[in-house]
Write a structure and sequence with these properties.
526 residues; alpha+beta; six-stranded parallel sheet; globular
Length: 526
């Protein structure tokens, strides 16, 4: 677990930038204790400001004229939301965004620390007594230049922009921000994550979350996900388990529920559900190097992180209507189980493609049709695409901070035609902006076969002096055992230990212990 989330009840009577003095008497101390375990915290901060005398946010906003105005562009717009009578900040005005950013400074947001991040909810904006539960269409923005009807869809965009600015300013742009938003617009991917809103604990909503997340990714909003388990109502053990398994393959992964639902920590459901959910979480964490590589690529190229099959196989019209199968990056095919009491799934494999089962390494050749894949409760169909290389970190840890120095494993899945594969690994310090000055490592791995020999080599970009090593290489689709495996690094050749499993045609190379920041080549002789 990496993040603890606090909803509106953490505040003093629903006043944002405050703390409930009884429930959270020493918030900074609490956050520092969380930090000691390598974890972080997120608090909810919404755009509606409680109209209460003595509440400093409301006092300053009123005094400085920072609120959205009524139709006459005179009085402050008032409506009803969680705190009761509220007003909304006019984030379309640059001076309002700067004022909002300043509220995140450690001296103003009392009890906050530099591991406290933000969740902007209700920012469509939601107004309980407004038309269609939102702001009146004739409310005025930007000094009366625009009516709300003209800019409604951008309100959340500018709020998130201002919040990100505040997090960056609080430590002089030394570390990166994190802001989750419910409302978004074109360009929101530059500022943070999005989730699909208040869903329900039902199989139908689990099923619907898959195409929703794919649609967001195709639209350029890559850091997206749905509340695991459903926000409203109570999932049974099977639904919760299947949702964790699906959520582990969404770019944004969070469990979240309404305050009036039953407690749903995995350990409350007992076995076998606890162990199955734990394995889904461990699988998610082991794949974090792959996720991070995909996100960095998306930040430069806008390539979706989660993608429908037609994105990789555009010439196969059979993929165009598929919503239940999807790819994580170019190399992982996922089919979440979204129906109760299901023990197998029909998974479409495009013609000419080769796939390896994640768990057994069983090989499947695509024929442009669906194949049956076993899906007992403890797993969902997960296939590795032939021709791809996937970086992993396989040691179970309590948080990503504890994984920073762990070694990598490379999964090399060979294609059928050339017995080759390629893939990438991107890494940096994960916190600062030093990557903008070249402090990163981007490795492009290539596995090639020529006659009775093969090699795994790579090209390197970046200058970050990472100390992480590669401790294991697993090659899938190897027809016979090699006679020798060696590594060449810094002009020195060294033989490596390996094991070959003929039944699954899997070759495992142990302890090359080569640094990801240095040049090296693995040689295979057959």
């Amino acid at each position: 677990m990496d993040v603890l989330w606090l909803d509106i009840e953490h505040t003093d009577n629903k006043k944002y930038f405050t703390w409930h003095t009884h429930q959270f008497p020493t918030p900074a101390k609490m956050q520092n204790e969380i930090k000691s375990f390598g974890r972080k915290m997120v608090t909810i901060i919404d755009p509606h400001i409680k109209r209460e005398d003595g509440y400093y946010i409301h006092t300053e906003a009123t005094k400085n004229g920072l609120y959205v105005k009524n139709v006459d562009n005179q009085g402050d717009y008032e409506g009803w939301c969680w705190p009761g009578s509220s007003s909304w900040l006019d984030f379309f005005r640059p001076e309002v965004r700067q004022w909002w950013a300043e509220q995140y400074s450690l001296d103003k947001y009392k009890g906050s620390t530099n591991i406290l991040y933000t969740w902007n909810d209700m920012n469509e904006p939601s107004v309980f007594n407004g038309p269609e539960v939102t702001m009146h269409k004739d409310a005025k923005h930007l000094g009366g230049q625009f009516e709300h009807r003209d800019v409604h869809n951008q309100y959340g965009f500018y709020m998130q922009m201002a919040t990100v600015s505040g997090q960056l300013q609080r430590d002089s742009h030394r570390t990166r921000a994190f802001v989750l938003t419910r409302s978004f617009f074109a360009g929101s991917q530059r500022y943070g994550a999005v989730w699909t809103g208040d869903n329900t604990a039902s199989w139908g909503h689990l099923k619907a979350s898959i195409p929703m997340i794919l649609s967001l990714n195709i639209a350029g909003i890559q850091f997206a996900g749905a509340d695991v388990g459903g926000f409203f109502n109570n999932p049974d053990a099977q639904l919760l388990t299947r949702w964790y398994q699906a959520g582990a393959f969404s770019p944004f992964f969070r469990e979240h529920a309404h305050i009036d639902t039953k407690r749903r920590e995995p350990w409350l459901f007992g076995e076998p559900y606890l162990s199955i959910i734990r394995e889904a979480l461990r699988l998610r964490y082991s794949l974090l190097p792959y996720w991070y590589t995909l996100f960095e690529d998306a930040s430069r190229t806008l390539t979706p992180v989660n993608r429908p099959l037609w994105f990789e196989f555009p010439s196969d019209s059979n993929t165009f209507g598929l919503e239940e199968d999807f790819l994580v990056g170019p190399h992982l095919l996922v089919h979440p189980i979204t129906d109760a009491d299901t023990n197998s799934a029909q998974v479409f494999l495009p013609s000419g493609s080769v796939w390896y089962d994640w768990y057994s390494h069983e090989r499947h050749v695509g024929q442009g049709s669906k194949v049956t894949i076993n899906a007992p409760l403890e797993r969902i169909p997960l296939l590795i695409r032939g021709g791809g290389i996937i970086p992993l970190k396989t040691r179970a840890r309590r948080s990503t901070a504890a994984m920073v120095n762990d070694p990598y494993t490379l999964i090399v899945a060979l294609d059928d035609v050339h017995k080759s594969a390629k893939g990438s690994l991107y890494t940096d310090d994960g916190e600062s902006f030093a990557f903008q000055k070249g402090q990163f490592i981007r490795r492009h791995f290539t596995f090639t076969t020529e006659g009775s020999s093969a090699s795994l080599s790579s090209a390197i970009e970046g200058t970050w002096a990472s100390t992480n090593t590669v401790e294991r290489i697993v090659v899938l689709g190897v027809d016979k055992a090699p006679s020798k495996v060696s590594v060449s690094a810094s002009g020195v050749d060294r033989q490596l230990e390996f094991n070959y499993d003929a039944a699954s045609k899997t070759l495992t190379v142990r302890k090359p212990n080569t640094k990801v920041s240095e040049q090296w080549t693995i040689h295979f002789s057959f």
